[in-house]
Amino acid sequence: MPHPARRARARERHRVINALCAAERACNTRGVQFTPIRRAAHETLLEIDRPIGAYDLIRELETKLDRKLSAPTVYRALDFLLEQKFVARIETKNAFIPCAHPDHEHTCVFFICESCGNSAEVENEKVDALFEQDAAALGFRIGKRVIEMQGMCATCQTAAGAAT
Ligand SMILES: [Zn+2]
Ligand SMILES: [Zn+2]
User: Fold this and answer.
1) Digit-coded pLDDT (tens) for 112-142
2) Which pTM does this prediction carry?
3) What domains can you pick out in the chain, each with its CATH number?
4) What is the helix (H) or strand (E) element at residue 163, kind and residue range?
5) In whole angstroms, what is the distance from residue 22 CA to residue 20 CA?
6) Which pLDDT does position 164 carry in this prediction?
7) Which has the closest alpha carbon to 110: 133, 130, 131, 91?
């Protein structure tokens, strides 16, 4: 019987690999290149899985690839990931987070914990439908679809409850 921590790690790795495969498939369909640096940047964001700033991403990527990277190189990779909507930008935090469903158009709704910094993404068809309706009424073409909710995650609430 594998150790629970090891099982959790395996599950975690599985999540990252699945998302990378989905991104790879999307790139093939769209006829764009998933170059090694773009892939590595995406993989790093997936592994961290909470909003991080560009400088932190550069540092993490350098550690991962074990070499120095120029900021423009990383910014270009990031631009690509944003353009393909594999990654979303959390405007209020000037941070980046991978989208959980990179292969189709949707509104990314991020629930971000202000206490631990973790975030969860949900995709809600009802929300999408509402915005589509409003956009159609306005004759508006939606480009980027990111909604961020800030608050406290279940784990932190439990911890806060236990502390009082
Ligand atoms: Zn998303
Ligand atoms: Zn939390």
Assistant:
1) 999 998 888 888 888 889 999 999 999 999 8
2) 0.83
3) 1-88 (1.10.10.10), 105-164 (3.30.1490.190)
4) helix 154-163
5) 5
6) 64
7) 91
Task: Report the alpha-carbon distance of residue 88 to residue 98 in Å, rounded.
Answer: 6
Give per-residue pLDDT as tens, 76-115: 999 999 999 999 998 888 899 998 877 777 888 999 999 9
CA of 149 to the centre of ligand 1 (A): 14
Indicate the burial class of 85 (C-beta count within 10 angstroms; 0-12, 13-18, 19 or more).
buried
How far, in Å, from the CA of 37 to the mean position of ligand 1?
21
Q: What amino acid occupies position 84? A: Q
Q: Give me ligand 1 centre to Cα 109, in Å.
A: 7
Distances 110 to 20, 25, 69, 126 between C-alpha atoms, Å: 20, 24, 29, 15
Amino acid at 138: L
Q: Are 113 and 156 in contact (CB under 8 A)?
A: yes
Q: What distance in angstroms lies between residue 161's CA and the mean position of ligand 1's atoms?
A: 31
Angle in degrees, CA 23, 117, 73, rounded to 5: 45
